[in-house]
C-alpha cells in the first residue's frame, strides 16, 4: 500500500509542485539506528515498508478497540533491482521468531537484546504511540544481513484515505465471511461482511479486508499476508494502468505525505520525488511478492534455514525473480557455453593440504578459454565458492557451473576467485546445466505472485 503511494506521489508532485508538500512529511529519529550495520548495498536498493496498526486517535476509529502502542501490522522488505525496472517485495511474518537487537528507548537508553520473540515486537519496543521503526530496521538488518537504504511507515488513516481517492480496489475472498467469523466471541453468525469472489473495497472496508484473518482458510497470518500482497498489487495495477485525473493527484499526494513517516534519506518531497523518478518505468508484472520460507513452531512461526538464507543471498547479489512464479529464467547450456561468458581473470585457490589441486583446476579452466591461474593456499569449506567483485555477478554465476554445488558471494574487491571446497566435483565441459546457478528453493518461489496476478489467485493458506 505504501509503494503505490510513493509512485503516485511522482505524478502529483510534478503536477502541483512538491514544495507545498514538504511541511507534511514526518521523519523518525535516526539516532535509534544501530551503528553496527551491514555494508552498503552494492547493487539496487532495499526499501523497508512498515504498515502501522496503532489504533490510536484516527487509527482507532478505523480499526476498533486496542492499545495506543504502535504495532506493525505488515512489514515488507522491497529489493529494487539495479536500474529500477523491477523489484521483489518480501513479506516477513509478524509472528516469526527472531532476535530483536538492542534498540533505543524514548529516554535515550538502549534496550537489551531479545531472543526468540515475535518479529512485530521490534516495532513496539519503547511502548510509544508512534512505534519504533528504527528498531524494526535494526531487526531486519540483523535478520537479513542486508543494508536498509530507505524506510517508510504508513498508518491506517492515510491508507483508508488513499483507497477512497483511487476509487476503490478489486479484491477476492475465497469464501463468504460473516461478522461471527471476525469476532470469535460473537454469539451469532451476524451479517455477511464479505461475499465470496471479487468485489471492490475502499476506506474502512479496505482496512477490514487487509486485516481479515479469521474466517478465511485456516485463520493464519500467513493467509492474511497473501491477501495483503494481492491487495497491494491490485492498487498498483489500477493506478498504473488506469491513471488518475489531475483533481485526484493532489489529494493523493497530500494523503500520502500527511500519513507517512520516513527516514532522513526520504525526508522531503524533493527526496521522495528523486527516489520515485528511478521507479517510473516499473510495470506491475515486474513487482514480485514472496514470503520468507517458514514453518509452524507451536503457535508461532520459525524461518526455514537454509532456504531463507538463500533468499537474503539472492537479494544481496541482485538476483532477479521472474513474474511468473518467482523462478529465475530456465536456460539449458553446456558448461563450456556458460564459461564462454566469463571474460575476467580467474584465481583458483584450494586448501594447503592439496596444493596441486588449484593448479590442475586452473589449467583445465585455461584450456576452456578462461584466463585462470592458481593462487595461494587458503582455508576451504565443505562446498566450493566463487567470490566476485562489483558488477561481476553474472560472470560469477557462469563460473560456478564448472563445479557442482558451488555458491557465489559478493566481496568488495574486484575480480573472480574460485575457492575449491574439501568435497567438490568438477563438471565435464560438455555437461548441460539447466538454469543459472543460485536457483531459489521451491519453499520460496511456489507462493510468489506479481502485482499483475489475478485477484483470486493464491489468496489464502490452509483453505
From TrEMBL:
Pfam families in alphabetical order: LytR_C (PF13399), LytR_cpsA_psr (PF03816)
Annotated LytR/CpsA/Psr regulator C-terminal domain residues: 345-422
Residue ranges of domain Cell envelope-related transcriptional attenuator in the record: 71-240
InterPro entries attached to this UniProt entry: LytR/CpsA/Psr_C (IPR027381), LytR/CpsA/Psr_CW_biosynth (IPR050922), LytR_CpsA_psr (IPR004474)
Similarity remark: Belongs to the LytR/CpsA/Psr (LCP) family.
Record's protein name: LCP family protein
Amino acid at each position: 500500500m505504501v509503494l503505490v503511494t510513493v509512485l503516485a506521489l511522482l505524478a502529483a508532485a510534478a503536477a502541483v509542485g512538491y514544495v507545498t508538500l514538504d511541511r507534511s512529511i514526518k521523519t523518525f529519529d535516526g539516532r535509534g539506528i544501530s551503528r553496527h550495520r551491514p555494508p552498503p548495498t552494492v547493487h539496487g536498493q532495499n526499501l523497508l515498508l512498515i504498515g502501522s496498526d496503532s489504533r490510536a486517535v484516527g487509527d482507532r476509529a478505523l480499526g476498533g478497540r486496542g492499545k495506543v502502542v504502535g504495532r506493525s501490522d505488515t512489514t515488507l522488505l522491497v529489493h529494487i533491482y539495479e536500474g529500477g525496472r523491477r523489484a521483489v517485495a518480501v513479506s516477513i511474518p509478524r509472528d516469526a521468531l527472531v532476535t530483536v537487537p538492542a534498540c533505543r528507548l524514548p529516554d535515550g537508553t538502549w534496550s537489551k537484546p531479545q531472543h526468540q520473540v515475535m518479529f512485530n515486537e521490534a516495532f513496539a519496543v519503547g511502548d510509544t504511540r508512534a512505534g519504533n521503526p528504527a528498531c524494526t530496521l535494526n531487526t531486519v538488518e540483523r535478520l537479513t544481513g542486508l543494508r536498509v537504504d530507505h524506510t517508510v511507515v504508513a498508518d491506517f488513516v492515510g491508507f483508508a484515505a488513499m483507497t477512497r481517492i483511487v476509487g476503490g480496489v478489486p479484491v477476492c475472498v475465497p469464501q463468504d465471511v460473516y461478522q461471527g467469523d471476525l469476532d470469535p466471541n460473537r454469539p451469532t453468525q451476524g451479517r455477511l461482511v464479505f461475499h465470496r469472489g471479487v468485489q471492490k473495497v475502499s476506506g474502512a472496508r479496505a482496512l477490514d479486508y487487509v486485516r481479515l484473518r479469521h474466517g478465511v482458510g485456516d485463520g493464519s497470518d500467513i493467509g492474511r499476508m497473501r491477501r495483503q500482497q494481492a491487495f497491494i498489487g491490485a492498487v498498483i495495477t489500477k493506478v498504473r494502468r488506469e491513471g488518475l485525473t489531475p483533481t485526484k493527484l493532489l489529494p493523493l499526494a497530500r494523503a500520502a505525505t500527511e500519513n507517512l513517516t520516513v527516514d532522513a534519506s526520504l525526508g522531503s518531497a524533493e527526496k521522495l520525488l528523486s527516489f520515485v523518478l528511478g521507479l517510473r518505468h516499473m510495470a506491475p508484472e515486474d513487482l514480485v511478492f514472496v514470503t520468507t520460507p517458514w514453518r509452524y513452531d507451536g503457535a508461532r512461526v520459525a524461518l526455514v534455514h537454509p532456504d531463507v538464507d538463500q533468499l537474503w543471498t539472492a537479494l544481496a547479489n541482485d538476483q532477479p525473480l521472474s513474474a511468473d512464479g518467482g523462478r529465475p529464467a530456465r536456460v539449458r547450456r553446456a558448461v563450456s557455453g556458460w564459461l564462454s561468458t566469463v571474460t575476467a581473470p580467474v584465481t583458483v585457490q584450494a586448501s594447503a593440504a592439496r596444493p596441486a589441486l588449484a593448479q590442475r583446476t586452473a589449467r583445465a579452466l585455461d584450456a576452456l578459454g578462461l584466463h585462470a591461474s592458481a593462487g595461494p593456499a587458503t582455508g576451504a569449506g565443505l562446498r566450493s565458492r566463487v567470490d566476485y567483485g562489483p558488477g561481476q555477478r553474472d560472470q560469477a554465476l557462469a563460473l560456478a557451473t564448472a563445479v557442482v554445488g558451488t555458491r557465489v558471494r559478493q566481496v568488495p574487491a574486484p575480480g573472480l576467485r574460485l575457492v575449491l571446497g574439501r568435497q567438490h566435483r568438477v563438471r565435464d565441459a560438455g555437461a548441460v546445466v539447466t538454469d543459472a546457478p543460485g536457483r531459489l528453493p521451491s519453499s520460496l518461489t511456489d507462493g510468489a505472485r506479481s502485482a499483475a496476478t489475478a485477484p483470486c489467485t493464491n489468496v489464502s493458506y490452509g483453505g
